[in-house]
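To whoever is on call:

I kicked off a structure prediction for a single chain this morning and the downstream step that reads the tokens threw a length-mismatch warning. I double-checked the sequence; it's 584 residues and nothing unusual in it as far as I can see. Pasting both halves so you can look.
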Amino acid sequence: MAGLIPENILEDILSRVDIVEIISGYIPLKRAGRNFKANCPFHHEKSPSFMVSPDRQIYHCFGCGESGNAFKFLMRYERLEFPEAVEALAKRTGVILPEFHKNDTQAVNLASQIYKVNELAALYYESNLHSQPGLNARNYFGKRGIKEETAKAFKLGLALDKWDGLIEYLKSKGISIDLMEKSGLILPKDKGGYYDRFRNRLIFPIFDVKSQVIGAGARVLDDSLPKYINSPETPVYIKGKHLYGLNFAKDAIRDNDCVAVVEGYLDFIIPYQEGFQNIVASLGTALTVEQVRLLKRYTHNIVMVYDGDAAGQMAALRSLDIFIEEDVLVKVASLPEGFDPDSFVRKYGVAAFKDLIKNADNLFDYKLKILKLRFSSKEAEGKAKISAEMLATIKKFTNAVLRTEYIKKLSNDLNVNESALKEDLGKVKEDKVNLLQKSVVVKKEININATEKLLIKLMLEEAELLQDIRQHLDPADFQDEITSKIVATMFSLAEQGRAIDKGVLMSHFGDADILQVVCESAFMPEIAEGKDKIARECIERLKKDKIKSTRERLHNEIKAAQSVGDNEKLNRLMQEFHLLIKKG
């Protein structure tokens, strides 16, 4: 898991970090004896089962099994890759990370170069906006209600009406044409050479959640088409995995435990500027599963804001069921026809927009309302079409009470027999994605031998016991594959004379099952006294268990050899069996 980052660097970072401080920066922790507890941020629960140990510098959820150290928490909560989590904690603790050779980290290095090029491009576009040629663009922003400080905060810019303005600027900064192309900023000419992708357009830099520039949207200054063109997908920018403005809004989303999702750049900027800051934009596409999961890091309450026209209604119907599958509470706010969030806030004010969000329809009511506009609820055929659409949505709810209540509500609204709806509901095929999602939040039960788990706990807590156990047992004596791997790693670290720190130990494992077992062992009840005696008893039990299982294996193999008349194998197995009996 550590990859190319030296283990001593990882150990240094973990020795300086306090996991309680890290996690409490994301979720509220309450003291529970020597540990801290909270509702798990990785699955829904009413009673807290998420434990954080300051002594062991690890966390473990007894509800879903999620486990790890500070690196793992950042990876899961912030959706970071391992090197990114290490870099984040290194900056926090003041640890200097070594530079790696380009050939060793080609992909990571390309991404970091693209981030650098994007940042330079954003600075270039921003300087254009505030130069003399940017006067018309500044006037345009002024007419659209964008304040100067807002333009600076979002690094808004201008692409000049030149074919190679950005190319020449980046060349002067030592950036190669190849890197410019890989960043999506330039395009090749048919007859050779390159030209700027964005020309004579307003620039809206797109940031990831860490405020790194990953792309841009570019809008014309007039009514010509296409109105917007956007960066292509690159190694750092995949449209369906990011949300415009999330880097600015994430704290407000957490504080309000709710987020409004709009469509475009200005639909985000104007409400945000006027004080409604728990808002993001979907970059002009229907919300994807990845984007919903990104929002779930901050809230499980989402309000989709759609235009009131038919296109907006259809967009809503196509994407709403995804929220049920992701176990998110979604509501829908419909704007008056002819308005988008930008124009609505400018005309009616941000207070009216807040009221619109506050009074949003729940998913069931909104979908039923739109379907009744499309199909007649007074005719049998219309009722059948409406109920079919609604039942497909109701089926996705895993909560039986919700299903029952929605069936009752649909029955009353359509004046259709409730039993008929229940019968049709049984015919609706359950969506595979929904089944997959349900399995995600259920803790994976890993049946580990209790004796083996207890020995791991003892070795984690007492260095002397670890050395003693090493003298009497081999990793192969641990019959479970998971515990055998854990013990092999611990023995290897001990041979190197290194302390078995729980947080550091976890950096050696990428397998979630192994991490879960390490954490479950570490969080077993404290052993106040008699650890030596308990360790000896565990060692003897493990040896006896191994002899017993080996005896059973040999017994079965002897029977098999006898049945096929393999005398040579039979004699060898009998000798092994007699030796085992003498040993036992």
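Update from on-call: the warning came from a stale cache, not from the record. Cleared it. Sanity check on the structure: The mean pLDDT is 84.
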